[in-house]
Task: structure prediction
Amino acid sequence: MATSVSAFDEFKPPSSSFWTLSRTRSALRVFGLAVMIVYSLLTIFPFYMLFVRSFVSTADSAQLHLWIPEARPVDMNSQVGNLAVFYDLDLRDLKDALGIPRNAFMGARETLAQISKKYNIPQEQIENYFEGFYTFNGWYTLLFGSLQGTTFWWGLFRTILIAFVSLGLLILLSVFTGFGLAGLRRRDQMYVYNLYLLQMVIPVMLIILPQYQMFQWFFKLFPGYDVQNSAIRNVLQIFALILINIKGTALSTMIFTSAISSVPRDLEESAMLDGASRLQYIRHILFPLLKVPIVSLTVIQLPLFYNQFLEPYVYLDPANTTLLPFIANRAGQFSTNFQVIYSGVFASIVPLLIVYLIFRRFFVEGVMAGAIKG
Amino acid sequence: MQLAASETQRGILPQAGGKPALSPLARRRILEDWAFIFPQFFIFILLTIVPLIVAIPILFTDMSQFNDPEINQVGWRNFTAVFTDRGVQEDYLPALQRTIIFVILNYTTVYIFGLALALLMYEIGFRGGFFTVIYLPLMVSGLAVGYMAAMLFAKETGSANLLLMKLGLLKEPINIYTATGTAFLLPLMVGWRYAGYNMAIFLSGLLSIPKETIESAVVDGASYWQRLTRIYFPQMWPSFILATTMCLIGSWAVFDELVALGALYVNPNAKLLSILFFTYGFQIERLAMGMTLALETFLPLVLVGVGLQRLQRKLQY
Result:
């Protein structure tokens, strides 16, 4: 609370006139810049590698690739069973594309060459079907495949839905909390405030087991919950997740309590004199004044909601899940197709990354404001 | 809190002891305040504090799974299991050891990345571009960071391994799936992820130092090291404590990164305490034991965390 955040643009190294005084100090500065550049490059490196690796098939992954490898034709001696296991080849799709009847038996050890001979399909047709198979396998499997009753796109949709609903409700409720606590004038307000601060030091792992048990008791009140994949089950699970997200954090309480405390009381009193209710006061006068703390909370909470893993993994069924549990399920216990996992990880990063790069200024300022509050 | 103190001095809020007679207006004000506090506070208490209370009777049973139909009372057996039960010890102690190593190394990375970057940033002047890049990994989920670690440092396919070996900087590939590999690389990746956040904490501490003290130190010819230890650090205590609090809770409860490294299934070297509690609760049907172990592990940490919070507030005001 000691520093004003908007002072960033004016912020310069401690007294720039001193820099000209000493050569060692300007050497320090050059050194600092060099370290910063190297560190920034190191930070970007994993993202770049992730992008490249999403195009590198498992068979090629033991060689170093610094750019997307050239597409190579499919090996006609590869067995369909291996292709299905290691590359998630969809056998039904293969049969449809090559004109093989769906009920025809295809042994796991049959090679593509044998299939070509058996069904009298020209090799070129098979090679055409498999064009780019190794290079785009990860992306193809991710974007068009389905897993345990859901797809990448549904996962992304649920992630975004939950993140935005949670964020909106969290801001609304936290503003109310901050309004009720503003000034911290009474002892009861102090108790509430201190309880919210506890959230910062209670790890999720400590409470998630009994919390899950409580939700199980709650869900049992609804008759349709036991039916797998029923609408009520899916809705209840997502409802539970949103409820957990909006319960309020130490940060949200601190940000809004201190922001609303700094709004002059005269403002509220004069609004009351003009006949406004307290809700009207919040809606028309307070909210516009709270832009900075709202942005601050948004830029800190949005990545947390979007990247939430433990709670969705626990509360949502695999068929009803969000993006990250979907990717973790994709990796599963036995999968060796890391290409599709890397594609999934990269795809999961991209949406938030775009938001971050567009609004980077708000992120920087909001995070610094949050860091000052703690 | 500043406000609370000043209003006490002005006599609006009476000193402790004498109970004020509330005017109807003041009473209405309190009720209205509570109408606004209540919705979120109800959810908060229900989902954060009540679970801790709900857990208490379960801790003394042999409840094995959620909605277990058959529950027997076992007294304090779950609590003493850490000291007496061979099977629990074989699970718990290695996980505890790995977690402690991880916490120590992770705390080191807070300084290597966070403090060092903040100092550099402070000396070269604030650059939004650098901040954008350094803060970027925080947009990535813990799960993705775990998969990235595997992508970079898997023994035969790790991109960083392959690149470093090609450049001749590395003879033997690093393997993240070994005990040492996990112990050292995981904190490094987690530190990389939180670098921007820790940097923001320390940078805000640095920015709150009055410029005059620094300038006079420079005029008096203080070396950079002297400036650090005599001027910067003594005035940055709230930042240090905040970073410690965050790191303490965050690293004892690290979970997502470990799942990505296969901790739930195949990789025993990534089984830290949080994974153990999760497995006990959701996978191998030892729910009550898992809850007890979690409580025994985390309760002291929560108390330390509360102490740190109080200390920080005392220093800040």
Observations:
- Residues 1-10, 15-21 of chain A have pLDDT under 50 and may be disordered.
- Chain A touches chain B through 110 residues (CB under 8 Å).
- The first strand of chain A starts at residue 146 and ends at 147.
- Residues 174 and 323 of chain A are 27 Å apart (CA to CA).
